[in-house]
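ingest -> validate -> predict -> emit
validate: passed (alphabet ok, no gaps, 441 aa)
predict: started
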Amino acid sequence: MEIHAKSRSAKSWAAPFFTIWTGQAFSLLGSQLVQFSLIWWLTKTTGSATVLATASLVGLLPQVVLGPFIGALVDRWNRRVIMILADSAIALATLGLAVLFWSGEIQFWHVYLLMFIRSTAGGFHWPAMQASTSLMVPGEHLARVQGLNQMLQGGMNILSAPLGAVLLDVLTVQGILMIDIGTAMLAILPLFFIHVPQPPKREAALQAGEKSSLWQDFQLGLRYVLSWPGLVIIGLMATLINFLLNPAFALTPILVIEHFNGGAMQLAGLESILGIGIVAGGITLGVWGGFRRRILTSLVGLLGIGLGSVLLGVAPAAAYPLALVACFILGFSLPITNGPLFAAIQAVVAPEMQGRVFTLIGSASAAMSPVGLIIAGPVADTFGVQTWYIVGGIVSIAMSVVAYFIPAVMRLEEGRGSPAEITNETPLLPVEPSVSLAEGD
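emit:
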């Protein structure tokens, strides 16, 4: 069962979708520049790791804590309006911060507040855009579009930091904030003129006068996910990956300094190669589109992530070039893993449920990152920083292999049926999970 715009011709969907996509790409660049400039300002002003950690936490908490409820709201409201309001809120908050920098009244908590607002608004914008994509893009092109999304993220990783550093030499922080406001306008304006389809079942319910509470919508979304064993397993895999690999990436500066005896240039080299790998993987996915069974493409990508992580962990201190190869493999494998998985969810999850599904999975997986960071430090101090990469890589490889033999995962794209089958009386856990390691596909 696939729910998407199969019948649309290339001309009817490509122009409006990529007009919106291009505006969002410029907005993403502006956001990355702001993130870099504010983090650098906090670092230069305070030199405090606690301040930086607090800023990261403030940016993470809204999406972890509010994410599931945000998803329910995204599925209740008009998604085009949500994106307009989210981008507008970010632009207005950024303008307010620019005024504070200009007036010399800026305080640390002002920056924290902006990061909180940006994170909250972004928590609305991302699921709204992801859920709208499946209604604007024909199903056979979803994986390619996700490949372009991943390529864009990789390109931003390469471009935003050096561009931000150059701009800080010629502009003030408030000048960069104004650039972000300009790029936000490029994202907002097309949305006023381009139709973004809404889930037909949600529109029909509203026309019939049917109403439900936010809590009921949240529970329905939770039951929808938990009644689908394949989606539950994918969510658990994403949570474990975030728990293991996000701390590994956070420990990269320590790996460079303590293991490879390198400095800032060596760290920049690893990050740049990672970004180049992401772009290459995104281009490959955009051209190729992946296997017919999207989940198989994701599992191959996860295998590559595991191999790259293990290779980075076992690279000898004198083999820095080998670490560069490992980072390229990691970067290349990220879009191969994420792109088809997002496309599969977009293709088979009912459109009126996609906001909740994306945010439920995203919130659960993101919540494990702080836990992993807390544990990673002592583990790295005791057993060496390479241990975290090796363990994370081995677990990723094992998950990719085991998941291939789990029918509920491999048949994810067959769907689970209509959300109308889920009621408030449906158990919060599947009664008969169709997961068996003994069955073949």
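The chain has a mean pLDDT of 78.
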